[in-house]
Hints:
Elements: H1 3-24, E1 36-39, E2 43-51, H2 67-75, E3 79-87, H3 93-101, E4 110-114, H4 117-120, H5 126-142, E5 148-151, H6 167-187, E6 192-194, H7 215-237
Parallel strand pairs: 2-3, 2-4, 4-5, 5-6
Antiparallel strand pairs: 1-3
Amino acid sequence: MPERLSTLLLGPLLLLQGIYTRRVTPRLPEASGARQGQAGNGARLRLLIVGDSAVAGVGAATQDQALSGQLVARLAEDFQVSWQLWAQTGLDSQDLLELLEGKDAQPFDVAVLGIGVNDVTSRLGVDQWLARQQRLLGLLRGKFAVQQLVISPLPPMHLFPALPQPLRWYLGNRARRFNQQLATLTAAQPSCTLLTLSLTPEAGLMAADGFHPGPVIYSLWAEHAAQAITGRQHNNNNPGVEHV
């Protein structure tokens, strides 16, 4: 069923389910702990991690259990990592643009980006969302001199246990459409990797709210990102060697 038709037919029910879900879903805090630091030895790597509540570590008790801590720990095995985390619950892509525009310019070698769930749950059209992603990538490359972009796809929202049907189906369908456009965009960008995460939000792997990742999913997410970063950085340092 096309999105416009499904919105028209199911609109009142989807609205009521959305209001109900927001009312009954527990509001979990962001992970506690440092949001910048240095770790490891080796070649210098300046890392920026930006995004919404999942990137901020909601669903994990501390940043060590969340994406940032687990990613830095993996990269620190090969690099001297200087890292910063700029993420906040409730951000959509426009909010993230404004956050980045408000930061002082400084250079980073790599940026890991995770944003979009709050765009999917809004009325934003996919074309508008794609335009915002283009602006985000351009801002990261321009203002922050990012040389490698690692992009996280939208999660499989059609499997989120916190969402009732048909809201779960509807948002999952939107997330898939957004991801399709994101794949086209990132494929045309130099030094840009769209992660291929096959993370099923099974019981016990999600946070208590049924909406955010738990530490196990954060670990898998960090592993995928670390592999993308390490492979690219090693290739940059040894252009005649292919790493897989």
